[in-house]
Amino acid sequence: LYLDGAIFAIMVDGELWFKSDEEANAFWDGEGCTERFTVTFRDGTVDGMNYRRAPSDVYDDAEAMQRYAAVAAEAGRRRPVRKRAKKKAAPEA
After folding, report:
1. What's the pLDDT tens digit per position in 28-84?
2. Which pLDDT score is estimated for 89?
3. Please, how many CA atoms are within 13 Å of residue 91, restricted to the half-sphere of its CB?
4. Which end of the chain has fewer CB atoms < 10 Å from its terminal CB, N or C?
5. Which H or E run includes 9?
C-alpha cells in the first residue's frame, strides 16, 4: 500500500503489515506489535523485513487504524528513495 509514492504497508495472506524503521520501532514495540514480517525462500533462507503485523482488533477500530497508518506512512517517507539507473544511449554510428 502506498501513500504519496511511499510504501507504508503490505498485505500478505489477508494480514496487514505496517512499515517501520529505527524511529518507529519503539512505537510498535509499545503497542505490542513485536512480530516482524519474514519471507522464506525456496532454498530455505529466511529474510526479515521491517514491517510489523497489525493487531486483529485494528481492523474494526478506525481511530487505531488511522494512528497506525500515520506512523507507518511516516516510516515510509523517511526511507531513502532509490533512483533507477538511467539507460545509456546507444553510441551513434
Report:
1. 999 999 999 999 999 999 999 999 998 888 899 999 999 999 999 999 999 766 655
2. 60
3. 1
4. C
5. strand 9-12
The DSSP secondary structure of 30-90, one letter per residue, reads HTT---EEEEE-TTS-EEEEEEEEPPGGGGG-HHHHHHHHHHHHHHHHHSPPPPPPPPPPP
Residue indicated by cell numbers 511516516: 74
Neighbours of 7 (CB within 10 A): 16
Neighbouring C-beta atoms of residue 59, cutoff 10 Å: 11
Please name the residues in contact with 49: beta carbons below 8 A apart, sequence gap of 6 or more. Answer: 36, 37, 38, 39
Strands 6-7 and 46-53: unpaired
pTM exceeds cut of 0.90 = no
70 contact partners, CB below 8 Å, separation of at least 6: none
